[in-house]
Structures are given as C-alpha cells and as structure tokens.
Specification:
With about 270 residues, the chain is of the alpha/beta class. It has a single domain, classed as Rossmann fold, CATH 3.40.50.720. The protein has eight helices and seven strands. The chain has a seven-stranded parallel β-sheet, sandwiched between helices. The longest helix has 26 residues. It binds nicotinamide-adenine-dinucleotide. Nicotinamide-adenine-dinucleotide binds next to helix 1 and helix 4.
Length: about 270
C-alpha cells in the first residue's frame, strides 16, 4: 500500500500506460480519477477486456475510482477533473499528465500544420493545463508530514530526449513536454511540489498498434534494444508508482528513461 490515502488524477487512463498505472495506483491504495475523452479502452489496444472501463475494473477489484470526461486540450476540462477528485475523494495528491497522441510515418516536409497542432495541443498544452489545474488545487491544501504539497508526473518519451526519423512533430512536442518538467521543477520545488517525467521507448499500446502490426519493424526494433524486447505497460506503471510514492521523495525534475537501454549512446559494435 505504497500510495495509501493518496488521490490521483490520471489523464488518458482509459487505455495503455494510463490504464495500467491507474490499476497499479489503486492496488497500492490510491483513489483514482480516470480523466479521458473516452471511457472505454481504445479499439486497437492490447487490453484484455475492451468492454470494461478502467474505473469499473478498479471498483470490481475493490478499489476506489471514478471516470471524468476530460479533453486535456481544454483547461476547463483539467480543472473539472481536479474538481472531481476533490468532490469525490477530498483532495489531490498526484497529477499524472499521461494523455498523449502520436503522429509518424512522414518526413518533416510532408507533415501538415494539422499534425503539428494536434501533437502540441494534446502532448504540450494538455500537460501544461494538467499542471496548472493541479498547482491551483495544491495551493488550497496543506503540506503533508514529509513536506510534500503535491506530485506531478508527465508521461514524456525517449522521443522527448532526442530525434527519431519520421516522427518529428511527435518528438518536438515531447521535447517541449520534457522541458515543461524542468520548468515546473525549478519553479515549484521549494513549495513542496515534486515533478518528474517518465520516458519510455515503444511499448505495446493502441498508440503503437500500426507499428506493432509491421512484423519487420517489430523485429528490427526489438533487435536494436539491448534488452531485446518492446516495453510493456507494466514496466511504466511500476515506475509511475515509485515516482508517485514517498520512496522517491528526493527525485525531482528528472526525466527517467525506461527503455531497455535503447538510448545508450553505443550498443552495437
Ligand atoms: N506506447 C508507446 O510506445 C509510448 C512510448 C513513449 C511515450 N508514450 C506516451 O505515453 C502516453 C500514453 O500513451 P499510450 O501509449 O498509453 O497510448 P494509448 O493510445 O493507449 O492511450 C492514450 C489515452 O489518451 C487518451 N487521450 C487522447 N487524447 C486525449 C485528450 N485530448 N484528452 C484526454 N485524453 C486523451 C486516449 O483516449 C487514450 O485513452 C502518451 O503521452 C504517449 O505519447 C507512449
């Protein structure tokens, strides 16, 4: 029960990393607001049960969770998701800005303004809004006995740490999201608000389904990673639990890779 008594809003928690993180957070004792544009998991994902929402699954397992409709591109929606946390569970301890979208398969000259705008609206503005809404609520609360006022997690990507071919609009949005982690950490650390970013490489979710359906890519990618496999949603959820818990209380402003060694500077000889 590493998150016992804590209240978390997790954006994009109907599917993928967010869903698995919500399940793990609840298992560790947290109360969860699943904040997403859609309540059921996305078609094309790898969830065992596409008909049961995350909040329903948590409640079936004896945990506490509610769903809140939330489009993170709208600040009013992230405010509303935080308000649901306060109404239902009395406070907010953890804001997990996980919602994100991917655009790939084109060179820079081929991407449209619509591709660029979509990535920035969800991945950058969405995290910015989530942070703003959470900080406003944290300021209405008292620090806990460890001096923590709140905890913000951003689901970034190894794409936020460097370049990759044919997904520039995604990478530059993730780069901005990574810098948001640093800016938040610098401005709000002294107030007791801890902020970190999680940087996975490709894992099996609806977001990467098209890549996973390409067997050549599946093999080539796994071969390029020192640990020789794709990431799993559980890998990310376990890191998120640690970063959300007091066990990581001196980790701040970090962007933690969870990538099987993909981003080491030199792997093959
Ligand atoms: N899957 C990967 O390989 C991978 C790797 C690195 C980083 N990421 C990042 O992880 C995060 C989660 O992605 P995932 O792989 O679990 O994808 P996913 O597609 O399985 O889930 C994304 C969830 O976000 C929701 N969402 C989309 N737009 C939204 C919006 N405007 N407002 C609220 N919710 C919205 C979707 O409905 C969905 O439930 C994203 O930020 C993504 O960029 C994914």
């Amino acid at each position: 029960m590493r998150l016992e008594g804590k209240v978390a809003v997790i954006t994009g928690a109907s599917s993928g990393f967010g869903r698995e993180s919500a399940l793990r957070f609840a298992q560790e004792g947290a109360s969860i607001v699943v904040a997403d544009i859609t309540e059921k998991p996305l078609a094309g994902g790898f969830e065992a049960d596409l008909n049961t929402s995350t909040a329903e699954l948590i409640r079936e397992r004896g945990g506490r969770a509610v769903f809140a409709t939330c489009d993170v591109t709208k600040k009013a929606d992230t405010d509303a998701a935080v308000a649901v946390a306060v109404e239902e569970f009395g406070r907010l301890d953890i804001m997990f800005n996980n919602a994100g979208i991917y655009r790939g398969g084109k060179l820079i000259e081929e991407f449209t303004d619509a591709d660029l705008d979509a990535c920035f609206a969800v991945n950058v503005k969405g995290s910015f809004h989530g942070a703003q809404s959470a900080i406003a609520q944290f300021h209405r609360q008292e620090r806990d006995e460890k001096g923590t006022l709140g905890n913000i997690l951003n689901l970034v990507s190894t794409a936020g740490l460097g370049g990759h071919p044919k997904q520039s609009v995604y990478n530059i949005s993730k780069g901005a999201q990574a810098n948001l982690v640093r800016c938040l950490a610098i401005e709000y650390g002294e107030q007791g608000i801890r902020v970190n970013g999680i940087c996975p490489t490709y894992a099996k979710t609806a977001l990467t389904r098209a890549l996973y359906d390409d067997m050549d890519f599946v093999r080539t990618f796994a071969e390029s990673v020192p640990l020789k496999r794709w990431g799993e949603v559980e890998d990310v959820a376990n890191l998120a639990v640690f970063l959300a818990s007091d066990e990581s209380s001196y980790i701040h402003g970090d962007l933690i890779r969870i990538d099987g060694g993909e981003t080491l500077s030199r792997y093959s000889v």
